[in-house]
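Milestone M4 deliverable, item 7.
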Amino acid sequence: MSESHAHLQSWPVLPAIISAILVTTALIYLRGWLSLRSAFPNLIPSWRLASFMSGFFSVWVALASRLATLDHRSLTIHMMKHLLLMTVAAPLILAGAPVFTLACGLPKLFIKSHPSFSGLPAQWLNRFLMHSELCWLASTAAVIGWHLPVAFQLGMRSHGVHDLEDVSFLIAGLLFWWPIVQPSPGATRSPRWSIVFYLFLATLPCDILSAFLVFSNRLVYPFYLSTRQLFSMAPLQDQECAAALMWVWVTFAYLIPAVAITVQILSPPAAESQAAMQSGRQRIANRPRRQLDNRTKVSLAENHYSPGE
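Output delivered:
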């Protein structure tokens, strides 16, 4: 109980720092978006701005709001925080095309004095992101690793480790969603159809973890025995509720984009269908008028005549 109380007492300091970082980054993004909007009105549409800001707001809710302190009293809230970071904030941020827009929002002097943005570290990161299997492994390692009892207990008892855990879940979410959202051209080398399989494989570790927490019939994280429960539930009931939340949430969070991508793959490209319509109109326009008139007459006759009359 004393550890949870100490965590609550230290609450105003860290959220103020996180809020300042988020607001500063959001303003840099807005500056870049406005400059791009004035030069190229259709390059970064308004919905990308809304998506990026919504993603940052989700990060703030998970890390800097009162919700951030309640995870020491409920495993369900703890699970909700990490699901918010990995499955809501991360894809929304990437949908905002953040890399290019933030680069345009930074002062030119800052970019010139920091060549590392286009140097070896950036090239290494770009090569890493091109391989979707590495992104999958990194996100899976974060999910499984932090839910091991030893790592979990350490994160709940140490402020520094707990903050590292939160940041790693956000980074893992960004890595996971990068091949799916593809926020920049050539974001991944994987074919589009493989992303459906990628999403299916991503559900397996979460399903296994959720099933273990639901059906283990024992408390996996003893930390919650020493804290006052938030919802007047027994710690084991709270564990089952958290696992059920993760099970259902992850299933829908990964199923919806998988269905959308499948429909996108099976649907003809807009350019091809537009070209087919244009070609059909052109063929009709090029027909001899006499032939067109004769076919029109036959069509009208068929519409006004039926064998039963």
